[in-house]
Amino acid sequence: MTNDAMTNAGDAPHRALGIGHWALGIALFFTACATIKQTPAERHAAAKAAFDTTTKDFHLPSAEAGGAERQRLLKEAARGYEQVLSKFKDQPFWCAQALRSLANVRATQGRTSDAVKLYSDVAKRFPDQSWEVLQSWRSAGDVLWEAGNREQARGFYRLLIERFDTSDAVQVVKTIVRGAKARLAE
Amino acid sequence: MGSYMSCIVTWVAWAGRAIRGRLVQPTLRSHVTLATLLTLATLPAPARINVVTLPGRDTVQLTIYNSADLTLVKETRVLTFRKGINKLEFSWANTLIDPTSVEFRALTHADEVDVLDASFPPRVTNTLEWRIKSEFAGEVKVEIRYFTSGISWAADYVAEANKLEKLMALAGSVRVNNNSGEDYEDAQIRLVVGVIRLVEEIGQLAKASGKPTTLFLSDRDEDRAKLNVRFQNAEAFYFGGMAGGGAGRAPARLKEVVKEELGEYFIYTVEGRDTIPTGWGKRLPSFVAKDVPVTSYYKFEKERWGDAVMRYYKFTNAVPSKLGKEPLPDGSVQAFRTVTDDNLYAFVGSTAVKYIPIGESVEMELGADREVLVKPSLMDWQKTDIKFNAAGNVDGWTTKETWQFGLQNSKEIDVVLDIRRNFAGDWTLTTTQANEKVDANKVKFVVPLKPREKKTFTYELTTRHGTNATK
Predict the structure, then answer these.
(1) CATH code for the domain in which residue A133 is found
(2) Sheet strand arrangement including B436-439
(3) What is the pTM of this model?
């Protein structure tokens, strides 16, 4: 009845009300944007805080917990990393770490396929985050290797070697590459 | 696994809450732990069943590069290896450690210990696991090196002038602040002083990477490689053979900071060991030099400080001045003066000094001093030699100003006043007071005053304007 009454009252007021709502919405949107606008350093710090909190409060404790508590912590950790990925798309440095960490959670939960896909996504979505790419490819290979899927694992080891087997690589990278080569030779 | 029982050595660098349960020492908020865990080779996956040993860090050495927000950490530990495959975990979670810089090497039995591989166990995050093959069963001393951000240091000085302000004792200290996320216990601390090309380049690369905190977590492979290679080279050149060379504990006396001259910069090594937990700062005494000659004087320049008279101490970083053994890093200075015969001190002022190379003099501006007064008064003003052009307008004139300066020293000691006056245009100064032309528009009057003395001097300033000006 109310709607009918308003409609019957004429289109002009209705349109005016609609335009008013839109204007208010737009104003609120821009006000909110202005309020939450952060400097690049603040965005970096906020992303770091979100990542660190997830790691410290959920992911790390999950390694020591058991049973249902372990599953709860892993679930919370996954949720935290997903939030970093959704809220801080402008922070590839932290998003790449969150994506790899999410893959670690899935691997720990026994969801190997999901984990491998997420590991693989790190290089696709954040190709410039070399350290994260290196870790992800190595982890993907290891997870597949341990699951008995050696041929697919070798694919990740080959990718790793192609990109990171350089003469000026730092010691830790050389060690990882050496390990990947050893796996290929098995 | 080839042997019936293999050994997993877990080494965890950890910040924040203790998640390793019994492995974590309860007195420390965050720290590095090391544990040897056993696993049965017959199990399908490594299972931790027992903690065998928990060796602490044997030595820790921090070399702090302030200008690049970078600290080289070198740790040595004695690990008990089993013959066969050993595993070692390193975690950098919630710290500012750069994982790409982590290096492991055996200091003893090096030819029998081989790092086969490194991987990233998914059960925990930001953890590296080394697989190490050992041909030797027993204790092996290992070194682990890495870079971290978040550790900084700053120098500060206390100058204590004698009653006549002719000599002073200069004491230097360094304050180390640790916000790296990691505690460092009993660490030997080395501070890099001076600007070196290596660090400048690294600083530029750090800026280029756009990371506000972590230097080495660069997105770019070439940056990372350059940084690491340069520091490896620097480490080999500058720090070779320094591991384990720390001085013994000496808590009861002033620690000596050992300085090494290395080309264009210095490394200060703080004597002994100190524990610096994350989130904490620690002040470490560095040096004390007594009977350093100091020149005390006062400056007045209306355009810079208004009516205030500023106090200065000047000294030289040179051997004749009981200094000059090393450059002095930039830092803050608190200055005091003995005011009574029983060594009661009065605060004189504080300031900041820039890096002082050997042989250079430094002026320390210590703020306004109300016991020394300078009062300039314009006593007379005349306009003369007025010239008119053909249209009858003024196009040339000369002004003459007579200034009197009232000077007062309310102190019990001699003081020297340095009064600067700035003039513009075509000017001439006439006075009986000794003066020195500093530049085209500035004149300096240096006037000594005895204790409680009042003095005046005058000058006449003639300034030619318009067509009267000849320069």
Answers:
(1) 1.25.40.10
(2) B361-368, B310-316, B295-300, B415-422, B442-449, B436-439
(3) 0.70
